[in-house]
Write a structure and sequence with these properties.
Elements lengths: L7 H5 L13 H17 L1 E4 L8 H11 L8 E3 L20 E3 L2 E3 L9 H7 L1 H10 L6 E2 L7 E6 L5 E4 L5 E8 L2 E2 L2 E4 L10 H8 L8 E3 L6 E4 L5 E4 L2 E2 L4 E9 L8 H8 L4 H6 L12
Length: 288
């Protein structure tokens, strides 16, 4: 890179608010410290207006152009995205059925030049994410469809309660719809404990005290421990769909979603998913 060339990260970020072009700089350490405190306390951090202001409209336009490529299929699911006929005890939260009406644009349908693709693969951004989660390194989710995707929630639909397959999730609202509130239950389970009773209470609308809510705007960056937090997007109203870019990283390399989850979300599986059956990589032994 020449001395006059602007780093990729500087062209993507709101550097007036987040001057993060130099890992380890004072501004870097300040932002990382803030994110770590929020993640330790509640498993979630929002960095408002993270993306460059001049790219917010571009984000919206690009997501609107990608949305028709999403796999749309309203279906019945459970919070663990496991098969509905999985043998489970009567009071198990996995027996609670919900309707999922959101859709996903998979990574292989996202253009290489899209803002979210450039941000996801940018080494300095990956270093920043790792620092915020107090890790030496993060890995792109090895899943060829789910590693980077666009979540589309059309008017009248929602993304019901669920857990993520990866330990840490980075997301960015690219288009806001009316309603469509992000709700989550931080640390409702851990790598060592499923805590089925609390999960069932939330699913049965008896766990209001466990639920947190976020107001997000396009361009806000959300850092989130989605594997351990039950979360959902409430129904979208009005006429505009809610779009969210999901940038999935993992602490361990080689993590790929299950066949059942992949079929539910994308309507297809790839050879990588079939091969992963023989070498499932997880940081824990949670249900999924």
């Amino acid at each position: 890179m020449s001395g006059t060339e602007t780093p990729v990260i500087a062209r993507l970020l709101n550097t007036a608010r987040y001057p993060l072009t130099q890992p380890g700089s004072v501004a870097w350490r300040h932002t990382v410290s803030h994110a770590r405190a929020a993640l330790r306390g509640g498993g979630c951090c929002v960095l408002s207006d993270f993306i460059a202001p001049e790219l917010v409209d571009t984000l919206r336009a690009q997501s609107a152009a990608m949305a028709p490529a999403a796999h749309y299929r309203v279906e019945t699911v459970n919070a663990y995205n496991i098969a509905l006929d999985t043998p489970l005890p009567a009071e198990h939260p996995g027996r609670v059925r919900m309707q999922r009406g959101n859709a996903f644009v998979p990574r292989d349908k996202i253009p290489a030049g899209a803002v979210i693709q450039r941000l996801y693969t940018e080494p300095v951004f990956q270093r920043f994410v790792a620092d915020c989660f107090e890790l030496a390194q993060v890995h792109e989710l090895a899943d060829p469809l789910a590693s980077l995707c666009l979540n589309v929630v059309p008017p009248g639909e929602s993304h019901p309660w669920h857990f993520d397959v990866n330990e840490l999730t980075v997301s960015m609202l690219t288009q806001a719809g009316e309603g469509g509130i992000f709700e989550y239950c931080p640390n409702i389970r851990s790598a060592d404990a499923e805590n089925f009773d609390d999960v069932r209470a939330v699913l049965d609308d008896r766990g209001e005290h466990l639920v947190h809510r976020l107001s997000l705007r396009p361009g806000d960056l959300q850092l989130f421990r989605g594997r351990y937090a039950l979360h959902r997007v409430t129904p979208v109203r009005g006429t505009v769909a809610r779009h969210t870019a999901i940038l999935a990283y993992t602490q361990h390399p080689g993590v790929v979603s299950s066949l059942e989850r992949t079929r539910q979300l994308f309507g297809r599986v790839t050879p990588e998913h079939r091969a992963a059956i023989r070498r499932t990589v997880r940081a824990d032994r949670l249900l999924d």
